[in-house]
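Entry 14. Structure prediction run on the chain below.
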Amino acid sequence: MKVFDLQCSAHHSFEGWFGSEADFVDQLARRLVQCPVCGDAQVEKMLSAPRLNLGRSQNPPPESSDGALPAVSASSDVALAPLQNEITQSLLRMAKALLEQTQDVGNRFAEEARKIHYGESEARAIRGQATPQQTRDLLEEGVQVMPFVLPESLKGPMQ
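Output returned:
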């Protein structure tokens, strides 16, 4: 099994698992390899180094006197690539969990959210589409909603 660090033309980083280098090249040529965030099939393999798990550091990160964690700065995008990949993977996991744990009410979202809020419909977690104005109106009424844009790759059938 080959694991490659990949990146789309929008600079989203992600991993791809393939049976061999030839499988990767074949799937890439047939545009089967797509970014899980935006669905872009313009993907390239990035340079990567092997990861060595040598155990956990015995020294916890230092805290300042006010309890804040130290800040991190990087001089190039390359230094932040692992962090960006971790954040992207976390967002994808969160989006998948939202899909699995909510009912899709489509463009009836604002109407259904109000019904739930005012006790006219059973309480449940829902998702759907709402215009920015509908979202503002719901929030002003005290209806708890969270705008969340799903990546294109998650809008199709779940595997």
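The chain has a mean pLDDT of 79.
Filed with the rest of this week's runs.
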